[in-house]
Amino acid sequence: MALTRSALRLFSGRFTQACQVRGYADAPSMSLTFAAPSQVLYNNISVKQIDVPSFSGSFGILPAHVPTLAVLKPGVVTVFENDGSTKKFFVSSGTVTINEDSTVQLLAEEAVPVDTLDISAAKELLAQSQSQLASASSEVAKAEAEISIEVSEALVKACE
Amino acid sequence: SQQVRGTATLKMISIRLKSVKNIQKITQSMKMVSAAKYTKAERELKLARPYGIGAQEFYKKAEVKDEEGEKGQLIIAVSSDRGLCGAVHSSIGRIVKTDIAANPNTKVVIVGDKVRNILQRLYAKNIAMVVTEVGRKPAVFGDAALVAQSIINSGIEFSKGKILFNAFRTVVSFRTTEMPLYSQNAVANASKLPVYDSLDSDVIQSYTEFSLASLLFYSMKENATSEQSSRMTAMDNASKNAGEMIDKLTMTFNRTRQAVITRELIEIISGAAALETKN
Fold it and tell me: For the ATP synthase F1 complex delta/epsilon subunit N-terminal domain, which residue ranges apply (chain A) (predicted)?
């Protein structure tokens, strides 16, 4: 009994070693920290790919992406995890940092999973913001209404 | 007259005893309230920590350094409006004072009335802005964004900057810490900035503005947790001290009461004995 157990242990040890050797051949992974002020979605978790909507265009981040900074636009962030699953989150605004060592910090002001969004509420918000823009008097009020429209349009798009 | 003095002292002691007992009740209830607020604050801080730490990563990875300039220093001192929380406010005030003494060209943005009171007397001209109504309710990102927007709108320029706050360690300890703040110029001249692709001044400006709000939010959350835990400890100590005073006063009260009774007995008995011997 003890012999078989120790034999199994030897076998599994060699098995893991073989896996490690194979591991070096894969591309370096990137570590994602995706957080909002009141919640943590990913904290230094290794993922395969992240698609982000930014003011300089929507782009996908893969390991060894060139370092950059970008400002987030209201839209959907898609995270492709290592086990193959995909998770989508709606973000309102924020910043994304990609560093030299392939660490990514995605700081969103608000982030919610897309399946918690209610399309009728989003359409209502869009109608509200459009009427706000029509009745806006000052530059500041106009800008605020335009931001509101941008977010609600993105919300409606995310629900569809 | 000795008798009169005895009862007068008795009354004084009982008044004092009643007031100390009331104080103990108040400090005990303040401790309970702080304990509840602390639990909530610590829970929110745990969720905010990855966000706050993530917000500092870029500046570390890009090796941003303070600007070489003469525009002076900006200190954002984060605290709150309410007292009775131990050394939370005074530790911030102390560090700001030593900083201003070392570097007179310093502007301070004060978040919270208590630090303003500490600095107002000697350093009123260094105070650039004061934010009040802080600490009553837990901070949300919108509050930090409001403060950040006011700082940006005021057009304060600085070469070197920092946020001073109390970082929460454990229920019984906190550490007064500083987080560096970098101006847009400092970021633009960072040694590793060329590594970062396709950056223009618009992106850098938006990034640093959002960073300011994020770092302020994080420091507010840390400070709130430190403040509540410190208040809990302070009120607990106050209750214990009040308890000791109550014990001592009760002892004195009982002794005085017994002394008064004994004196009365002695007078009655010696009076009766005097009457007997007369007879």
Answer: 30-111
